[in-house]
Structures are given as C-alpha cells and as structure tokens.
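Morning run. Coffee first, then this:
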Amino acid sequence: MFEKLFSKLNYFKIRDSIKSNVDFYLGLADEYISNKNYDKAAEIYNIILSINKYNTAALLGLANVLKTKGKYDESLEKLFLIIKNNPRNIPALFVIANIYKNSIDIQRSIKFYEKILLIQPDNYLASFYLGEVYHKLNNYSKAQKYYIDSINLHNNNKDAYSGIAKLYSAYDEHEKAIISYQKVLQLDHKNIDALLGIANIYLKKDNYELAQYFFKKVVEFAPDNFDANFQLGEIAFKLCHSDDAITFLKKLENGIDIPSSIYYFLGVSYSRKGLKTLAKDYLKKAINIKNNVPEYYVELSNLVEQQNQLELLEYALKLDASNLIVIDALAKYYGEIGAKDKELYYLEQAEKLSDKKAQKKKIELLKKQNDG
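And here it is:
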C-alpha cells in the first residue's frame, strides 16, 4: 500500500497524508520494522520528523532503526533530543543505556540505568541490566545485589536467575549456581543456557555422569548444539568410549572453524578401534589446523612404520622439550629398537620431570642390565 502511495503521489502529497494521519503511519512503520524493512520505516519516521522534529514516537523509532543498523552515534543523537525535552522518558533512557552497555563505554550505561531506577524504582529490567554491567566489570558484590533486586521485583525473571548463576559459577560457588540454574529450569525446562551451565559445573568437578546427563538434555532439545556435542565427545574420549566419542564428534566435523582437538579425538578414537587409515586421516587433519601440538605427532607416530616414527617424535620434541608424553614415547621407541642407552637417557629426562612411571621403569631396566 505504502509503496503504491509513494509511486503515485509526489513527496508533498505524501507529507500531507502523513501529517493528517500520523498514528496510522507510525503503525505502518512498526509493520515495516517487524518485517525487517528498516529503510522504509526510516523514510516514514524522517517525513514525520520533517513535519514535527520533536515527535517522540518518530525519534524513538528512528533511533531504534539506526541502532539496529549499527549507526550508534546517529541513534544517540535522536535519543538525547528526546531526553532534552523529556528527561523522564524511560524507553529512550533504556535504549541509551543499552547502547553504552554493549560498547567500550560500558561505564556510561550505569548512569542511565540508575536514572531509570530513580524514576521507576520497581523496574526489574533496569536492575537486571545493572547486574549484567557490574558482572562484566567484575564487581561481584554489586552484580549480585542488582541480580537479587531484579529477582525480588520479578520472581519469574529467568534471565536474572541465569545471570546470578553465572556469577556464582565464576567464583566457584557451585552449589549456589546450581540452585539458581534449577530456578531457571523450573520456569523453562528446555533452557539451554541453564542446562549447559549445570553440565559445565559438574564437568569442572569431574562428575562425568551428571555432566553427561545434562549435556544429553541439551542435545535432546537442541540436537546440533556445538558445546554439548563437543563435551559429550570429549568425555567419551577420556573414558575411552570410542564409539560414543565418534558419534558425538562426527556431528561437528564439517562445521566452520572447527578446533583441531575434534579431529585429534576422532583420530585417537579410530586408532583405539584399530581403524588405522581413518585414524591417520583425522590426525593429519588435526595437524593441518594446528601444527604445534606435540601430542598430535606422538599419536600419529603410533600409526606409521617404525622407520618413520623417529622423525615425528623428534619434531614433537622440538615443539616442547619438556613434554612428558613425547619423552615417554621416545623412551618407548628406543626401547623397542634395542637402543638401551638412548632409552635410559629419555627415562632419566622423564625422571627429572617427576614422572614416577618412568622412574619405576628405569629401576627395572637398570636391574635387568645388572642381572645381565
């Protein structure tokens, strides 16, 4: 309808039409915004403002369009014009605060959220956002205060429960964090953020059983969730459950910016299953992405002919001369080819790095030499 109007009438007729029916066109602009046609919405707002440059609804609408398009300075210019005429305009104060909250001027957002609370002390969103700001600024006590204020003002504010749970978790107050995440789940049992939060707490505590339970809940509700599938794959890898590791990690292998560890875990898992060709392929993929991880070369050395192993192990040693996995692998290699002096040398190197296993093996080797 509006497109036809623009095509048939000249600018001044359109302006007169809008002037006589501002509310209708403001509603039309809202429709354009809901359909993400921001340019058309901006046209309407600008024409309304050419009629009345202080029209609050048009200024606020245009400010939001400019904010959405990343034109923050222009957006703030419109918003401060609203505040100049009405310092108590809460929607404008919110947009200003939110722009600063997500910028390098995050400190400036505090002033505007506090202004909102002075005007409207029971505004739970302003308290929540202050909690988020102080959380980002690592001010634990103030973040906690405002999250709790927000919850007290609105007991069903799951974002505030989630925020305070993250705060508790960051400071290793795990039980409090779990209780807060459980509050979120009471309000929204499919909340991915809360399920991941609880799962990661149990993972941090090495409680793999409960971590797996909550990560699997995430996958139940969001099958392609990267974090949950990755963690389930890594847990299965650590537990040597190769089939499970492969199941979860294979879902991630074709994504964008895949971490090299996924290919490493897949390579080792296939190696454990005796599938050497697949194992080598995945380990080489891991190395192609990140070629400075000694463990990748050690694992690959286990899959190549003996005459090619030393080159990989020596390269791994160049990457990290104090890596016990590499030193152990070199000791094992020289032991297998019968080079006892070199085996002993690397066992001594491992011993210096407090490897009790190597120390025990060294004693056994010396005993055999003495017996011989």
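The mean pLDDT is 91. Good start to the day.
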